[in-house]
Amino acid sequence: MLTYASVFFKDLQVLPAPSGANANQTFDGKPVVPLAEPAVVIGKLLRLCYPRTSDAFAIADLDGIAGAYEAAKKYLVLGGPSNIEALLVDPRFLNSEPHRIYAIAYNLGLEPIVKKAAMATLSKPAFDFRLPHPPEYAHISAVALWRLQAFYQRCATRLGRELSEPICWRDQSELLTPASQHTFNNIWWRDVDASHAPNCGPRYDEEEPTIGPAAWFSEHVDEIRDKFAESADVERITGQLAKISGATLQAISACPACAKEAPDHLEALSRSVKYAMQGALAAEITTTQFTGD
Asked: Among 79, 121, 225, 289, which residue is least crowded by beta carbons within 10 Å?
C-alpha cells in the first residue's frame, strides 16, 4: 500500500539493504523501517495512504495532523498535503475547533486556511480562560495570538457600527426620498398612518429638522449593542435583534400598532442587518494578513 501511495517508499524497495549493528531490524519476523516521527503522526500518515473507500481509516481528530502534513511532504505521499488541507477546512473540525485549526494552519503557513479558521473563531469566545488552551497554542508565537485577537476586536467594532445604523437620527427630507422608503417603512419610523399610542412612534427634534425611531426601538438596539459590545458572533447578535422580551415587550404592548407589526419588522431587520454584518466581516478578512511579516 505504501509503495502505491508514496514515491519515497516505492524507491525504498530498490535501495541497497542497510548495514551495521542496527540494520535489518525485524518484529514478529517482519522487517522494520524506523521512522523519526512519533506514532500519532505516523498513524495519521498511514491513514492518508489508505483508499478513501471506508470510514474505518478516516482521520477522526486533529492530534498530530501538523506533523502528518510535514511527513506527507517529506515521504512524498501523493495527495497527502492537499488531503490534509481539505481536512482542516472540513466543517466538523473547522466549526468545532477553529482555534486549533488556526494554530495548525498558522504554523504551516497556510494563509487561506488561517483566514477561514479566524472567521470561524468569531462565533466562539475570544479567550475563555476557564478552559484549557488548544494544545497547538503551545507552539505558536505571541504575534500569532495578537493578530487573531486584534482581528476579533476589529470585527466586533465593525458589527457594533452596523448595529448602530438602524437607530441613527435622519434628516426629515429623507422621508420623501424614494430610495429611502424601505428604511422608513418599519413601524418604529412610521407616523401618521400607523396610529401609534401616545408617546410612541418616531421622535422629532424641535430645533433640528431630524427624526429618530420610536424610543422603544432605540432602547432595544442599544441594549443588544451593549450586551454584545465585545462579540463578533453575527448569529447571536442578529438573533437577539429579532427577539422581543423584557422591557421591549412591555413597551410595544402599550401600542397596538407596534404590538401588531414590530415582530415581523424586527425579523426582517434582523435578516437585513445579518447580511450587512456578513459583508462587513468579509471586507475585514480580505484586508487582513495573518502569516508572514
From this structure: 289
